[in-house]
Amino acid sequence: MTERLSRPMGTPEGDGDRLPPPRFAYDRQTWKEIAHLLANFPVALLGFVYVVTVLFTGVGLTVTVIGLPLLAAGLAGSRVLGRMERGRARRLLGLHIDEPSPLPGRGSGFLPRMWMQLKDPVGWRTVLYDFIRLPWGVFTFAITLTSLFVLWPVLPFTARLLTNADRAMVRGLLSPSDELERRIAELESDRGVVVDTANADLRRIERDLHDGAQARLVNLAMGLGLAKEKLLEDPDSAAEMVAEAHGEVKLALQELRDLARGIHPAVLTDRGLDAALSAVASRCTVPVKVTVDLAARPAAAIEGIAYFTVSELLQNVSKHSAAKTASVEVWRAADRLLIQVEDDGRGGASLDAGTGMKGLADRLGAVDGLFVIDSPPGGPTVVTAELPWRDRAEGQG
């Protein structure tokens, strides 16, 4: 059976109004649509049983300790069912829908991950899809099966009509979350990364104070106490002890300066990235060329992240690269601050190499930045970091 459009009588034939070629009503796509409709009932039955058994059981058991974890696991499983349905629609209906973003899991414990799954809009929409599909699956299965034996001439049109409704349901309920939902999920994950990073920095500062300056100041107090006791009976020994205490004071002050530089260097606050990165480069064991091309200064928070990113990358160059030279370039492109650190060392750097690269990538990701490593074995290594540009006045506001 074919579908053919007829040309109105009296219309002249010509290249501009040539009729389209005839098309078989039962072509390949029609059979795919029929297969989709016949599969609707078993697939819908599977989804309905899953929703009722797993999720409703989880809701009923929320008064116990296993209820919420079971409900969260059920919602995670519904994502799998949604992925299967999107794949079926792609293969049989020619409907291409992007997969939703996975739930963020980095930097999260069991309870935060469970709470994220319980709030997952993709999982809940899939639950709704599976819940309402059973009557529709029974209806489309019955209509299609009957048409195969009774209404054969109109089956292609019926199949197209029913699968268009299927396409609408898949688009409406199984499409990815909108951009706002994506950003909320990313920001919730990034907030966890920022908190973990801040806690790690606080622990590092506490450890440095305890093991460094604090220990020296305790020794200094003890030394001055002994010198005070010997001041009258043994002035020479007391003078030597005071001299030693003076040396301890200098070392303690230097350690405090280094610690303060690690928190936020004064040169960065006073003179900006150019001077601060030049100071960092001067402490690197490899000669470093620094080029900063910025007409204005970014917000203090962005400036600080850029500084510590370059600082850690240059520490990696000193410790791990075996490089002879390195370079640092910083510039602005539209609304982004770009950083590129390159060295001619041995290469082979990666996010999993244990050199702090993963931590840097997480920090930049937490502020909507990017971190890319190009480091083939044998070198060179090029690390590109990208941060959102925010004006300094806006950042201070």
Sheet with the most strands, sense and barrel status: 5 strands, mixed
Helical percent range? 55-70%
Radius of gyration: 34 Å
SSE string, helices as H and strands as E: EEHHHHHHHHHEHEEHEEH
What is the number of helices?
Answer: 12
Distance between the termini: 72 Å
Structural class by helix and strand composition: alpha+beta
The total of beta strands comes to 7
Uncertain runs: 1-23
Q: Looking across the biggest beta sheet, what order are the strands in? A: 3-4-5-7-6
Mean pLDDT: 78
Oligomerization category of the chains in this entry? single chain
| Count of all domains | 3
Shape, principal axes of CA atoms: elongated
Beta-strand percentage range: 5-15%
What labels describe this entry?
10% strand, Single alpha-helices involved in coiled-coils or other helix-helix interfaces, alpha+beta, 397 residues, 7 strands, Heat Shock Protein 90, disordered N terminus
Describe the structure.
The chain has 3 domains: 20-177, no CATH class; 193-263, Single alpha-helices involved in coiled-coils or other helix-helix interfaces, CATH 1.20.5; 266-396, Heat Shock Protein 90, CATH 3.30.565.10. Helices cover 63% and strands 10% of the residues. It has 397 residues and is α+β, with helices and mostly antiparallel strands. 25% of the residues are buried. The strands form 2 sheets. Strands 3-4-5-7-6 form a 5-stranded mixed sheet. Strands 1-2 form a two-stranded antiparallel ribbon. A hairpin with a 2-residue loop joins strand 4 (326-333) and strand 5 (336-343).
